[in-house]
Amino acid sequence: METLREQILEILNKQNIGSMVTVKDNKPNARYMTFTNDGFTLFAVTEEDSSKVLDLEKNPYTHILYGYTLEDVDAPYLEIEGKVTDFKDDELKLKVTNFFRSLFTKDSSDMITIQIEPTRIRLMNKKGQPPQELEYPFS
Amino acid sequence: MSTTKKEQALEILSKNYVGVMATVAGDRPTSRYMTFEHEDFTLYTATPRDSDLLKELQANPHTHILYGYENGDMGDTFLEIEGTAAEFNADAIKEKIVAKYPYHVDGMSMTLLKIEPVRMRFMNKAGDNQEDVDFQ
């Protein structure tokens, strides 16, 4: 039987779209983002001057609903609380940049990648079961 | 043109009923999937009286909703709605919501939330084609 950790990683690896919320001027701000992951760490690209980056410099906390389709409303999804952290690893950066380059046709030179470290992950909607929380630290 | 935009926005509101509802809890963002009813551009949803959502909105009524979008279809147009939410008591609308989603209200004391939009925009893939909807 799959562990909770494996079930969560499976969703992170298989799906790549989530809604990401940040706080700006004490108001919530949500948008859909395309993500890639390295284990439990998430990466997303954004345009450098976009509101996302401005929000995150002031308040690094984010909340993400990850992996859900309207075709199957009972499908499991993840609720992730996280914090945006520095993005320093050059080798990883190259891997992540190449992933996003394959997704976006526009020039990627003006895009920056943000790294999100989850602090809380819950598996939701698993056949009517209550949310299951993965114990921190995850790895 | 603006009439068409309004009609398109109303079509999205009528076709879909699930949205991502974001709020602020303390200084942290939080969100959940919610089901909505609408009357023109006013949205309604239900939540338990003891829910975190209700407490969050009483402290900070601002909400941001992504409405009408399916994972896996990045081309879909959806609505981004900024608004304020407050408790609202209108039995007729409440009955309608309770009848539609009985499993949400089994054994729970629910209250109705009314969300008044402040700004509404059409969005699609990666935030391109942002267009304001003049819904007033």
Shape assignment of chain B: globular
The H-level CATH homologous superfamily of chain A, spelled out, is: Electron Transport, Fmn-binding Protein, Chain A
Largest sheet properties of chain B? 8 strands, antiparallel
Percent range of helical residues of chain B:
25-40%
| Helix proportion of chain A | 10-25%
Stated plainly, the CATH topology of chain A is called Pnp Oxidase, Chain A
Structural class based on helices, strands and sheet pairing of chain A = alpha+beta
Please state the second-level CATH architecture of chain A. Roll
The tally of beta strands of chain B, per DSSP, is: 8
- What's the pLDDT, averaged over the residues of chain B? 83
- CATH architecture title of chain B: Roll
Quaternary structure: heterodimer
What shape does the CA trace of chain A take?
A: globular
The name CATH uses for the topology of chain B is Pnp Oxidase, Chain A
The CATH class of chain B: Mainly Beta
Distance between the termini of chain A: 19 Å
What is the first-to-last residue Cα distance of chain B? 14 Å
In CATH, what is the class of chain A? Mainly Beta
How large a portion of the residues of chain A is in β-strands, by DSSP E?
35-45%
* Radius of gyration of chain A over all CA atoms, rounded: 15 Å
Give me a quick take on this structure.
By secondary structure, chain A is an alpha+beta fold. In chain A, about 25% of the residues lie in helices and about 40% in strands. In chain B, strands 1, 2, 3, 4, 5, 6, 7 and 8 form an eight-stranded antiparallel beta sheet that branches.
